[in-house]
Design a protein that fits this description.
There is one protein chain. With 357 residues, the protein is α/β, with parallel strands linked by helices. Helix content is 40%, strand content 15%. It has a seven-stranded mixed sheet with strand order 2-8-7-6-5-3-4, with helices on both faces. The chain has a three-stranded antiparallel sheet with strand order 9-12-11, with helices on one face. Helix 1 runs antiparallel to helix 11, helix 2 packs parallel to helix 11 and helix 12 runs parallel beside helix 14.
């Protein structure tokens, strides 16, 4: 675990999400000494620096800091679309399942989810769902992809497939947004810069507060005109923060320094996946766990996920169920190899006890 983090009280291993990371001592010191101003007036120098660096790293004209990734995605939806339009996305996409139906509530748009066998939309699937130019049909306003795929076990979008969708969408006059909450995990796994992975998207949201370890914050990048409009929508959603440089100071450390350590989380996840694959009653393919998220089937244990989570917590391990039959583990900077070993021993003990009863 990160020695600069707060202790986890009596919980030794927290695998619920990479959102649970605690700010490092370096982050806390930077926050305490951050130069600040009023960001709604555009006068916070630390926020401005963070936004400038994000734009540079992604090869974009501008960027904007937001409190959360959900707000970043929904600001992008609002800027790209008009009320009454549809948004094409994959069936398990975060923007569809876990953002409180905000594309409908705030932007007046209807999701058009597409089921896939592997988490990756293909252009032909997308093409078939684009509305015809008929006045009584809701028109397609946006295509949204997700990289890495959270509910598909942290999978990485194949570059050729993503680029093909962007190219054809643009030819059809449609924008494409990337929910890149964990795009730095994809970049680390592929040893490629995020700018190369995201170049063809019209907008990209990424999180500082997941694998990069900042306590708060996500950024949205795009053209200068897009970000100008995004600033208005952020304010409408209540995201106009004032002396936000205190948060941006931690975000700068996350952005500049922590992508280099993400491979450690990936290695721990792969080690854990390989161990889980050997446990009776658990089903997982380690080859399908390329980053830091593990989705595994527990039907063979005879338990459902609430029961499995409860038994894990009794052994000082926190985890989450995806549904009754499936569990999720997420590795991060506050879970080292020893913590992963404790988690695996807990799973083994739970499953061995179930097998004998």
């Amino acid at each position: 675990m990160d020695v600069n983090s707060d202790c986890f009280d009596d919980i030794l291993v927290d695998l619920r999400s990479d959102t649970v990371t605690r700010p490092t001592l370096e982050m806390r010191q930077a926050m305490a000494t951050a130069e600040v101003g009023d960001d709604v007036y555009g006068e916070d120098p630390t926020v401005n620096h963070l936004q400038q660096r994000a734009a540079e790293i992604f090869g974009r004209e501008a960027a904007i800091l937001l409190p959360t990734g959900t707000m970043g995605n929904q600001v992008a939806v609002k800027v790209h679309t008009s009320p009454g339009q549809e948004i094409i996305c994959e069936e398990r996409a975060h923007i569809f399942n876990y953002e409180m139906a905000m594309m409908s509530r705030f932007s007046g748009c209807l999701p058009r989810p597409i089921a896939t066998a592997d988490g990756f939309l293909r252009w032909e699937q997308v093409r078939r769902k684009i509305s015809g130019k008929t006045y009584y049909l809701a028109q397609t306003g946006l295509i949204s992809l997700e990289n890495t795929g959270n509910m598909w076990g942290g999978i990485i979008y194949p570059q050729a497939i993503a680029d093909e969708i962007c190219d054809h969408a643009h030819a059809a006059g449609l924008p494409v947004h990337l929910d890149g909450a964990r795009i730095f995990n994809a970049a680390a796994a592929l040893s490629k810069p995020v700018a190369a992975l995201t170049a063809k998207f019209d907008s990209v949201m990424f999180c500082l507060s997941k694998g990069l370890g900042a306590p708060v914050g996500s950024l949205l990048v795009g053209s200068a005109k897009f970000i100008e409009e995004a600033r208005k929508v952020r304010k409408a959603l209540g995201g106009g923060m004032r002396q936000a440089g205190i948060l941006a100071a931690a975000g700068l450390i996350a952005l500049e320094k922590h992508p280099a350590r993400l491979h450690e989380d990936h290695a721990n996840a792969r080690w854990l996946a390989e161990g889980l694959a050997q446990v009776s009653g658990v089903q997982i393919d380690p080859a399908k766990a390329p980053t830091n998220i593990l989705i595994f089937d527990i039907r063979g244990t005879g338990m459902n996920s609430p029961e499995f989570c409860r038994k894990l917590s009794e052994r000082q391990v926190l985890a989450s169920g995806v549904n009754d039959e499936t569990m999720r583990f997420v590795t991060h900077m506050d879970v080292d190899r020893a913590a992963c070993e404790r988690a695996l021993r807990a799973v083994e003990a739970i499953c061995a006890h179930a097998a004998h009863n």
